[in-house]
Amino acid sequence: MTVFFHEPVMVEEVCYFLLRGEGVYVDATVGGGGHARAILERLGPSSMLVGIDRDEEALDVARKTLAPFASRVRLVHERFSRLRDVLALFGLRRVRGILFDLGVSSWQLERGERGFSFRREGPLDMRMDTSWGKTAFDLLHTLSEDELAELFFRFGEEQYARRIARAIVRYRKKKPITTTTELSELVARVAPRRRIHPATRVFLALRIVVNDELGELERALVQLPELLEEGGRVVVLSYHSLEDRLVKRHFRQSSSLQEVTKKPVFPSPEEVRRNPRARSARLRAAEKVSFLEGRA
Q1: Least buried of 40, 46, 199, 265, by fewest C-beta within 10 Å?
Q2: Residue list, annotated binding site
Q3: CATH superfamily of this structure's domain 11-107+213-288
Q4: Cα–Cα distance between 259 and 287 in angstroms, integer?
Q5: pLDDT tens-digit profile of 163-195?
Q6: Residues contributing to the annotated binding site for S-adenosyl-L-methionine
Q7: Over the stretch 72-114, which tens digit does the pLDDT of each residue have?
Q8: Cα separation of 59 and 201, whole Å?
Q9: Domain regions of the chain by residue span
Q10: What are residue 77's phi and psi, to 5 degrees?
């Protein structure tokens, strides 16, 4: 049986910025259903929620979490970059609001077999959708030293990217790197001790590339003007600067979206104390404006 506990981040803030009356809402990263449940609890029986996730195990849990609202929920196993196609499945062209929670769930991190955490031993997988795609193991053993260094520097903003890449290439000539702890220990041996674990940014970079997270986000964001009703809103919870910069740039460059949050909204100190994984979260929201209204 799948055991899934993930405390959703900034629930009150998400609902405050996202909900604009009755209608159809999309939770594009439904996970275990925490945000989706909070949204449905605040909406009337005429509203509907479409939940999307590329992790099938997460969807199994979301079905249980959202069972009291089953008649108003549609769950789809898909990447959120295919938003337009998902909505078309239900004859929908536009919706009232869309939520993206871009973080990895506590449940995914704590399951060693998924390979996301440097603290838990498991295979070097890191795929959100385990049914397809290259794994972290594949990248570590096929990319050159230059390519690995670029990956760690660009997607993990890792200061010691070259040193770590060189150590990986040297190590894999002797034997494959097969587990998360093996990689974590290798990185820790060659990178200086810091406030965060030395492997944190390496694991982040690998996860981003394995799942094409920035590409997926970019492809989803460009669909928003077409898919949101006038007055509808999008809320994005991001957890690292690469995602946040991409969201901010898209909101500010779009002629159809008006920023609701001029600066990112952060979780309260009380929430961070209760749920330490919320500490890096930042929320941005934007609203679809009419063509005639334009940008303020």
Answers
A1: 46
A2: 33-35, 53, 80, 101, 108
A3: Vaccinia Virus protein VP39 (3.40.50.150)
A4: 6
A5: 999 999 999 999 999 999 999 999 999 998 888
A6: 33-35, 53, 80, 101, 108
A7: 999 999 999 999 999 999 999 999 999 999 977 666 666 667 8
A8: 28
A9: 11-107+213-288, 130-210
A10: -85, 105
Residue with tokens 């499945």: 89
Fold of the 130-210 domain: DNA polymerase; domain 1 (1.10.150)
Q: What is the pTM of this model?
A: 0.92
CA dihedral sign, ordered 49, 280, 107, 13: negative
With a CB cutoff of 8 Å and minimum separation 6, the contacts of 58 are 4, 30, 31, 32, 105, 107, 108
B/e letters for 56-71, b = 16+ CB within 10 Å, e = fewer, are: ebbbebbeebbeebee
Angle at 104 between CA 102 and CA 107, to 5 degrees: 145
The yes-or-no answer to whether 11-107+213-288 and 130-210 have a common fold is no
